[in-house]
Amino acid sequence: MTTTSSGRTRGNVVTITDVAKHAGVAASTVSYVLSGKRTISATTRARVMASIRTLGFHPHAGARSLASNKANVIALALPLRPGMHLPILMQFAMSVLTGARSVEHDVLLLTADEGAAGVRRIAGSALVDGLILMDVETHDPRVPTLLELDRPSVLIGLPASAEGLTCVDLDFSAAGAACVQHLAALGHREIALLGAPQVVYDRDTGFARRTRDGVMEAAKTAGVTAVARPCEPTYAAALEALRSVPHATGLIVHNEAAVDHVLTALRELDRRVPDDVSVVAICPDEIAERATPALTSVPIPASEVGRRAVELLMAKLDGVVVPNVTLLAPNLTVRSSTGAITH
């Protein structure tokens, strides 16, 4: 084997052994850098990656020489951004972790907001077999990169266009519509959506926009008045939002962290639930059930969504053609917080 002045080999395929000799490490160390199955020091990893670049070694080709051609690791990109409710995010993360372990895969959790660059870095490192991405924006800057990668990916969320992608989520548009339809059937003619914090709408995060759109379209169809207000997860913000919709007799709360604050603020305003105002929430069942009164709600099926995401990714790794979009139908459970309008 000969090398060019740039260090690239000529005549033969570069192997892990070639990279190991160039980097001054054992071949097993190169394998661990590629597979991520053991922790390697940052200094050693940097040296190995420099040799990979210098020799023109292709990580994907190298990975194929490893047993089963798999790292058996899934990357979960869950950027911790302002306005997101950590407990519900962790429910999604745990469901992905549980689903991955059931098929003998580990999960590499990525919480830094690195955008497209982070996706490209992880996919190019050969540390993972595929990627699952959360907190999807309507015009998500990571999407063009995903379409270029040779590693499969699944989005928990729905961008403006799903062409060439694989997406799974609750049908938030239908969830918002179901809440409106329930309140309209009870005779409520003025409805207000108290939604996510403003920063979530500013990012045009898909689930928040789709819920709002579903509420407004369903209200138009039902012939009722609807307004949408962002709501920070504080008592003061909930009180301000409620004071801005004094005539609403039906409330839809799509902000898990604000639910208790909204109910407390309603008591402060002497608006009884459900006698004066009916409340529907889009939130996990445990939040709806522990509220006083118990809330009529559409649950967020984090466990099911996470499980489906892993199943779709595993199918893609096996070469199976999967749907571009999988949306789970909402299920509204009636509890004590909603009733027929009496005035």
UniProtKB/TrEMBL annotation:
One of its GO terms (molecular function) is DNA binding. The keyword RNA-binding does not apply. Coiled coil: none annotated. It holds the Pfam family Peripla_BP_3. Residues 14-68 form the HTH lacI-type domain. CDD domains: HTH_LacI. The keyword Cell division does not apply. InterPro entries: HTH_LacI, LacI/GalR-like_sensor, Lambda_DNA-bd_dom_sf, Peripla_BP_I. Keywords: DNA-binding, Transcription, Transcription regulation. It comes from the Bacteria. This is LacI family DNA-binding transcriptional regulator. It comes from Hamadaea flava.
